[in-house]
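Hi! If you just cloned this repository, the fastest way to understand the data is to look at a raw example. We've pasted two of them here, unedited. The first protein comes first, obviously.
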Amino acid sequence: MHISISGFLPETTEEELRTPLEEFGAVVKSIRIEPSEDDHNYMAIVDVDTDEAGCRVLADKINGKVWKGRKLRARYYLFEK
């Protein structure tokens, strides 16, 4: 299952994203940060080891959370890559 997260600072690393996700209880398989020319449109695609309900709960916990002075946006996806 996958969650997309956006709204973070452009210099954010995969490891910086991994730590709070794991604190929420997520088992993170991988994180891929998609670069953008616009500092507000960076997006991370996070592959988590959970079911649909777990993905939904995790995305809900992240969405709207202020992290490093930026409001995060998160949503979950049902597709498998």
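Ok, and the second one:
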Amino acid sequence: MKKLNFRRRGNVKQIIIHVDMDAFFASVETRDNPALREKALIIGSLPGERGVVATCSYEARKYGVHSAMNIKEAYRLCPNGIYMRPNIDKYRSVSGQLHEIWNSYASAAETIALDEAYLDVTERAKDLEGARKIARVIKQRTRDEVGLTCSVGVAYSKTAAKTASEERKPDGYFEIPTAGDFVDLIIDRDVRVLYTVGEMTAAKLYASGIHTVRDIREKQEEVVRLLGKQGRWIAKLAFGIDDRKVTPYRPQDAKSISREVTFQENVSNYELLKDVLVLLALCVEHRAKRHELHGNGVTLKLTYADMKGITRSKITADCDSAVMIWREAVRMLDNMDRHPVRLVGVGIYNLSGEEGRQLTLEDYFPDSRQQRNEELKGMLDALQARYRLDFAGHLEQIYQMDTLHKTVEYMRKHI
């Protein structure tokens, strides 16, 4: 059978570091409360609530608990664990410290998450030995200045660097200098070792008798036939080919901004949903303004009690304010089937910066901004009266995920 011909283009060599914190949320809590050390700590929803595990300590992982697991299953596996809700604002603050350290050693840094980044150290390191020195300094400074451990991978590509950082967790270091070294390491491992191969993709490969990276290499045409463009990418990775550059993340590169909440009990009262949408629209507006972004469309997301998910969207240039986001979301909600709801979310999309923003009514009629501010105040006053809430001087706290969820649950119970 003819093999697909994958060859590296050009002679540009990269040295990339991938840094990944060890059980980040749990490690921060343990650092701040030493009594939690060596305990099965699970960060996410609380037992008895709806939700999932955000992360957990390595002690909890010994019981089979892992990120994204349903919290009820986590409790079944580890009933004596310590369960905590995440403190996202604290984690963001710690993340800022971490990325400031890491980014200082890179010509380009790509933030993947609060606790994870790719660093292009080609110019700074010069060679593999230089990269090793940088990696050691990053690990030491992370420990000394932030009080946490991280795992670091050094490699010739982004995929190999991420694989390397996972090789010796926790508090590990590993390097994969060449494509040959990468292939030698993973060739007999499950296909899910490769970037982009998730559960559903793996299931398709398994059904065709493709279980390992070696199988992918030997059945390249079959992989491409099954998965199309993604299959071709996976086949390239099986040969160690990944020429992607480290690309610094910019907020304006995001495709959308959204906020959603899951109710602890299904909601059939659609007037309550409309009230919750006020708070969600406020959160979306706040985040968009913080990054100086503007949307060109509004989305509404519902998940019904039977887990059926519905998303609706509407193109509109006039969605820079919470009031207008709310109005469009409510119009879409009024045209959706009325079944008990488990989750509701709202967002804006087709994002652009100031230079790409379309003109809105507020640009032509400045008084309309004041009118919308007054309308928003009236909506918040109505919420305060209806649910006996107090936003005075505390409204900014609603942007915090934990406060938002607590407020929504309070509203649900007091409708």
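That's it. A detail worth noticing about the second one: The two ends are 67 Å apart (CA to CA).
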